[in-house]
Specification:
- The protein is α+β, with helices and mostly antiparallel strands.
- The protein folds into three domains: about 160 residues, Beta-Lactamase, CATH 3.30.450; about 110 residues, PAS domain (Beta-Lactamase); about 70 residues, Arc Repressor Mutant, subunit A (Orthogonal Bundle), CATH 1.10.10.10.
- It is built from 14 helices and twelve strands.
- A five-stranded antiparallel beta sheet has the order 2-1-5-4-3, with helices on both faces. The protein has a five-stranded antiparallel beta sheet with strand order 7-6-12-11-10.
- The longest helix has about 40 residues.
Length: about 375
């Protein structure tokens, strides 16, 4: 095995590791594996055990005269390999022609084309497939050293697929949460204990873009124009992450950030979010902080309007939440609105579903301790 092939293998391993955070790296890794195989096209695909359909196709081509990314053209034997794969050793590249002959099946690929395929067991009853096709009119085959190196990479491919599947629902929840933050009138920024920006909503992007009071520096970190204020802010972020304040709770103390031209200062509140998984990466105080920034020059919003906007509630549902947050009982709310107690309780159940809560106390906590409290 020459040093070039080894370097290619190490680079592919790195790409597969990076694919955990950036799924697009799977395509780059497959392209590199296709080049390493000296093949015309490469394939990643996945399917659930016992189901006919395959999904999650990633196809790359090393030569422009091949399939143009059409997996059904480049890999017509994928369905055949899926039928025969149960009798083949996982994490090994199998010659589909030879496998078909052994089990008395016919292949769709011409005899002058080499097709190697492998299957990898992942969690949740899913199977990942890896394949390479190569035109070989002269009867040549993918070199044994290249094939061995590719097989050595297959376990890494399997792990990348498995981790991606586990992270799929987490990413979906994260996208939904970030979408909700974009409906906040106040600015919301998520940073690590060093102030490195992980996310900010539309209101924060506007505020940082104006670069008045708070800003994002050239290194992507939250900062202030005044050095003393910036230092105080960073200390506060680290202290909140390391504090005993429960995740998601906003500290009562607000920081004031002065702005130019005698304008009213910004009010900043910090809420910690500690991730157990991030501790080895970020040290003993690993975690994130949600930084809530209120601009006093913004028009005041009614609490019910904010609640309805953030949690996508109807006007009546938002008023119900506001009333509960002020300590009103179901009976009080029904009497004041001239509605039956059963009707109010039925509506409250819908509110629970929309806000992800199960009790009135949780609903109160959501309003009084969460980011919405900043608009009060």
């Amino acid at each position: 095995m020459n040093s070039t092939h080894l370097a290619q293998g190490l680079r592919i391993t790195q790409l597969l590791l990076e694919a955990v955070d950036d799924p697009e790296r799977l395509r780059t890794a497959l392209h590199a594996m296709t080049a390493l195989a000296d093949a015309d096209a490469g394939l990643f695909a996945s399917a659930r055990r016992g189901e006919d359909a395959t999904h999650g196709f990633v196809v790359t081509t090393a030569r422009d005269d091949w399939s143009g990314g059409q997996e059904s053209v480049a890999f017509p034997d994928l369905a055949l390999y899926r039928r025969l794969g149960a009798r083949a050793t996982p994490e090994r590249l199998h010659d589909v022609h030879a496998l078909a002959r052994k089990h008395r099946h016919s292949s769709s690929v011409s005899a002058d084309t080499e097709c190697l395929m492998a299957h990898l067991e992942t969690d949740g009853g899913a199977i990942a497939y890896v394949g390479f096709v190569r035109r070989a009119p002269d009867g040549s085959r993918i070199e044994a050293t290249r094939r061995a190196l590719l097989e050595g990479l297959l376990p890494h491919v399997g792990r990348a697929f498995a981790i991606a599947r586990r992270l799929e629902p987490v990413r979906a929840v994260s996208v939904a949460a970030m979408h909700r933050f974009d409906r906040y009138a106040i600015a919301v920024a998520i940073v690590d204990e060093h102030g490195a920006l992980q996310y900010c909503n539309e209101a924060a992007r506007t505020l940082f873009g104006a670069s008045d009071g708070l800003r994002i520096d050239d290194e992507g970190c939250l900062g202030a124009h005044d050095e003393a204020t910036a230092t105080t802010l960073m200390h506060a972020i680290a202290a909140h992450i390391a504090s005993d304040l429960p995740d998601g709770h906003v500290a009562r103390e607000l920081l004031r950030v002065d702005r130019s031209g005698g304008r009213e200062p910004l009010s900043v509140a910090i809420s910690p979010y500690r991730s157990v998984g991030s501790a080895p990466l970020h040290g003993p105080h690993g975690g994130l902080a949600v930084v809530l920034i209120h601009n006093p020059e913004q028009p005041l919003a009614r609490l019910a309007d904010v609640i309805g906007n953030v949690y996508e509630l109807s006007a009546q549902e938002a008023q119900l939440v506001e009333a509960i947050a002020t300590g009103a009982s179901i009976e009080d709310i029904a009497r004041d609105a001239d509605r039956s107690i059963d009707a109010v309780r039925s509506q409250l159940k819908r509110v629970f579903r929309k806000t992800g809560t199960t009790r009135q106390t949780e609903l109160m906590k959501l309003v009084l301790s969460g980011p919405i409290a900043m608009v009060r």
